[in-house]
Amino acid sequence: MRILGINALFHDPAAALVIDGRTVAAAEEERFSRRKHGKRPVPFSAWELPEQAAAWCLKRAGLRPQDLDAVAYSYDPELARSAADLGLDDPWDGLRQTYAREAPGFLKAALPGLDPGIVRFVPHHMAHAASGAFAAEGADTSSVLVLDGRGERASHLAARRVHDRLEALHAQELPHSLGLVYEELTEHLGFLRSSDEFKVMALASHGRPRMLPELRRWVYPTGDGGFHATGVPWAELCPRRRPDEAWTQDHADTAASAQAVLEETLLDLVRWLHGQTHDGLLTLAGGVALNCVANARIAREGPFDRVWVQPAAGDAGTALGGALLLAAGGGDDPDPMRGADLGRDWSDAELGAWLKTAAVPFDRPADIAETVAEALADNAIVAWFQGRSEFGPRALGHRSLLAHPGHAGNLERLNDVKGREQFRPVAPMVLAERAGEIFDGVTPSPYMLFVHDVAPEWRERIPAVVHVDGTARIQTVDRRAEPLVARMLTEFERRTGLPVVVNTSLNTAGRPMVDDPRDALECFGSSPVDLLAIGPYAVRRGDFFRSDDTDDASR
Hints:
Nucleotidyltransferase, domain 5; five-stranded mixed β-sheet; about 35% helix; 22 strands; seven-stranded mixed β-sheet
């Protein structure tokens, strides 16, 4: 079957294409439109579709809309209840539901030739669940836990996969929502709601959970696989912070308390689910599953032998999950994800043509990995643009900013380059076979979705990647899956003795991750990055801005 998955209703619109159970392509609309998260999650934007992402997915496979067997739309308006009935303050939610019901017509207009009759509404949390249960390796029989802000009428789903079936075990109805509680705190702390929740997680490491007893009055597990989470009086815990205002210890302590009560509740849900299934594998999806601190605690203290997190755990991942769910239901055997590199790429010749059109000086070294390793050893900041772009919010060695981890000042330096708050950490990438001697935690960790304790003897050697609490959110690199990145890491260690490189996303604050060559050149030209490694080519900052350089061999 040829199935196109679509996520559109709330935020992070995305498209994914699954053919005969195999994921061929997946991309978020923000990478094409250059609007962070694609759109704001308000009812008035619910009609907007991932038109460019969907068109690209079809083009990648050489398909036309009329060639599709089904389209999975990751929301079922028939399951929804009014916002008032759900206890939500969302007076325009009826408009959102109207747009959802009209989605087949909107899709027909966006993809000329598409038969609207093949559009299938997939329940939102079942799409999330399928993105974990059908994408994880070795998940033929496994448990899955979904937590986010909201779906049709719930904010949580506990389920189980047995072969080609997903069985729902329990759902927590709204208004109780761990995701919405965390979103409310994000807004209270002066950050952008439904966007900056990861900043709250980072800020929590700077605080103490001294408000935890108070928060437990409002957020707690109910012992039956569900929870209470609504009505937190945030203003009683700390003053509201304006976006342009410095954070205080009260803000950090509130964040730490919220993080702690989230982790406590998640552990109870995980233990309840294991008691129902006794499975060895737990898969996680939904926006809450991007909380890598909570994920690490679930893996460390929970009853499951293995925990796997969907790398596009937020709503974008429901495009993939919806398509996988229909594929499994139609008789296809879903193929596990082999990596998150499911987006666009360009051939060496195409990249060279881009650079020539841009009239920038560049060269083609014998080995771009060795060139980058040498630049990093000299403490350069490198923009790394290689292969297919990542699906999901993490840079995983395809659209990355790289730096030397041995200089503590590189954390501040990178945050300045990206225009980020200085309390936010950057992450290390490390060869999978070397991770165990430096980091304590879940390995392999190819998607940067768990935090790890940094071994004490390494903290002074790689200070740029050690967070204030002594942890790091690592990415392990498999030589077979990522040979170019592995060679760069090997060459860097040969020069420095350090098997770790700083890896953060190739973008600046408020902008989506770089996706195409034009994005890469714009980012490189507007920020103090020393070297752009784009495919096999190297663009050096000094040459880039040397106006009298007219005799470069590449021109």
